[in-house]
Amino acid sequence: MKQSAKEQFLYSVTEGLENFDYNERLKEELADHFDDALYDRHIKGINEQQAEKEALTSLGDPNHIANNYNITMKKLQKPTFYRELFLIWIVSFPLYLFLLIMLPTSIQNFFALNGLLSFDSSIPYNQIIAFALAIPIACIVCFLFYILTLKNIYQDIIESKRRYRIFALLLSIPFLFIVYSILLPIVLSFTEATNSTFLDPEHPLLSLATTALYFLYRCIIVFIGYIAIRISLAFFQKKEQQLFQNKNIHMPNKQIRWFPFSMLCLVLLYLLYWITQPFFGSPTPSPSATSTILRVLFFPFQIGNFFLFFLNIVSTILLRGFFSILTIQYIVFTIVFGVCIVSLWHISRYIYEKFVQKKLRSFPYLAAIVFTYTIAMLFFSPIPKRSFEWHVPVVPIATIIEKQQLGPAYHFSKFLNADEGHAFHYTIASDGDQLFINQNSGNRFILSDIESIKKYRLTKQKDESTEQISWSDGYYGNTLATLGFKCDLSQYDLPENIDEIPKSCNSLTYNGHTIYTEGEDFSWQLGPIVLTKDKQWALFQMIGGAYDPSTVFLVDLRGL
Amino acid sequence: MQFSKEVMKGVAEIIVLQTLEQNGESYGYQLIKSISHSSKNIFEFQEGTLYPLLYRLEAKGLISSAKKTAPNKKERRYYSITPTGKRALKQRTAELGSLVKGLKHVLSFSL
């Protein structure tokens, strides 16, 4: 009888409760409360039936308890809907892109996509403009979206009929498609739009995943911008206290709780798919890509970029040069890494407080989502291994220069990326007896005493370009051929549509002597070569990629 | 005694925080009894009011909770005031003091 009355009471309360995470705890505490009330009355000598009646009366009306609880919890969970919209915004973008890719070309022409590839995102100036434009525009769009949907339209639907909540949220998708059409050109303008896996109809899955992941971390940056505006406004209006009141509140919709966790699985699947696919035109999966998976998993590539960002900043300040293109690229990864760390801190704090301190803490879903996405970005790209086998004496002159310039920082950074710590771009030049190395820090190095290259002179000069032989003369290098160089093309069967990408020189000979041979893997590309007048020495510029540092080797051609 | 929501708004939190500050950690049932006793039965919290209020205070970080064994050997969730809660209590008590002072003048005047 006692149990049934208690259970009946709890059942009545539970029936009236809306879907909040504290429900179980409320039930538990009410049950305890009932037991305590009953116990007190037993001690006073009240008979069981009367005691139970009084205990139930003291607990109050179950409907009143449920209503009161619902109202309080609703107030606490006010920002939840915004989070859901944010999620839908993220999820609907791949859908939008999928539809766009599937459309005939003639219809695609109505969108701005076609003009995007002509945008040269490798120019820092363009990137800065894109950043400057994209973030405020995106913030304004986000803000308008938030005001229009959350405040005025959807809230009414949700308040009136809770069961239609999901349909209300889905209604946002058409609106979002319009937003994407406005934002996409701007957002994509500072992504690596020329990536061959980007919007490639032959690899829709890979294309979709790549694009979605690129977009997601742009979203996060935009989201941070939006939050920054909100915080700034709140401080301006002296309402900053309100910002932090609801930070530990649960996300009530259980349907979307699986989302951040399943995303991690999707990311790993994506990675698996990536490494088993033909790699950069190679007909078979790249052994280098497969072999780097452990490194990618245990020491994500982009974390190295985070440190290189600071290395670049420090070296730029110390050398009083210009910010390199790499610095600008690393800003993005640094922000992503920072977001990742902050999210991880939130999650760790939750675990500590919940399981060690046994405090009431709601799971930080937003942090988990952000962490999942950002960690996905850190896992993003396998690192192609770059291997050379030199057959003549060479001096890694760029490495020597950077070691001297950066000191211990160089040794630290060389373990962090695939470029052996290099942080600068170089161009090379020759003026008869002297060889010049121009660093994009603004420094020019003159190799006047080549026999003893450690005594190179460091001067600050304008980069007055002198003759250099480059592959722009034609891939087989007619000019090079007249000087005695011969290049064997990469063995990769490169598709025709990436003809404009410089092909790697599989091996190089000089007067019949092999200078170097590459490993089987995707390697550094041979850039320009300059020679001394007596053709005894040469500088080889090696290029890792548009966004990677380049390096320079001093090659000893004596006796060849 | 029953008070309207408008009157109790803001005061309820101070009452709970003050009780926890004074009595140390307590569980829900104890709190209701303590509040009732210390207010000489003027404030009688209903469960429907108390528990959501406790969750709200905990979400704000003003109180914390942990499960412990009560003297009756049963496990109960004990609430205690946090250092942030103590600071908030001090601030709000000062505010309330001024409010009551002002209110007293106004009410005396109107009487």
Keywords:
heterodimer; A: 560 residues; alpha+beta; 4-stranded antiparallel sheet; rod-shaped; B: 111 residues; 5 helices; 62% helix
Describe this structure in words.
The complex is a heterodimer of chains A (560) and B (111). Chain A is 55% helix and 11% strand. Chain A has helices at 2-16, 23-43, 48-59, 62-76, 80-102, 105-108, 113-116, 124-160, 165-170, 172-189, 204-236, 240-243, 258-275, 287-291, 293-298, 301-319, 325-356, 365-378, 397-406, 408-413, 478-483; strands at 388-390, 394-395, 426-431, 434-439, 444-447, 457-459, 485-489, 505-510, 513-518, 525-531, 537-543, 550-556. In chain A, the strands form three sheets. Chain A has a four-stranded antiparallel β-sheet. In chain A, strands 2-12-11-10 form a four-stranded antiparallel β-sheet. Chain A starts with a helix and ends with a strand. By secondary structure, chain B is α+β, with helices and mostly antiparallel strands. Helices cover 62% and strands 14% of the residues of chain B. Chain B is built from five helices and three strands. Chain B has helices at 5-8, 11-23, 28-38, 47-59, 83-110, and strands at residues 26-27, 63-69, 75-81. In chain B, strands 1-3-2 form a three-stranded antiparallel β-sheet. In chain B, strand 2 and strand 3 form a beta hairpin. Chain B starts with a helix and ends with a helix. Chain A binds chain B through residues 22, 25-26, 28-30, 32-33, 35-37, 39, 59-61, 64-69, 71-73, 75-76, 245-246, 248-249, 357-360, 362, and chain B through 27-29, 46-49, 51-53, 55-56, 58-61, 64-67, 72, 74, 76-77.
Number of helices of chain A: 21
Strand order in space, largest sheet of chain A: 1-9-8-7
Biggest interface, residues from each chain: A-B, 35 and 24 residues
Main structural class of chain B: alpha+beta
* Head-to-tail CA distance between termini of chain B: 23 Å
The helical percent of chain A reads 55-70%
Distance between the termini of chain A: 104 Å
- Computed over alpha carbons, the radius of gyration of chain B is 15 Å
Count of DSSP strands of chain A: 12
Mean pLDDT of chain A equals: 61
Cα Rg of chain A = 31 Å
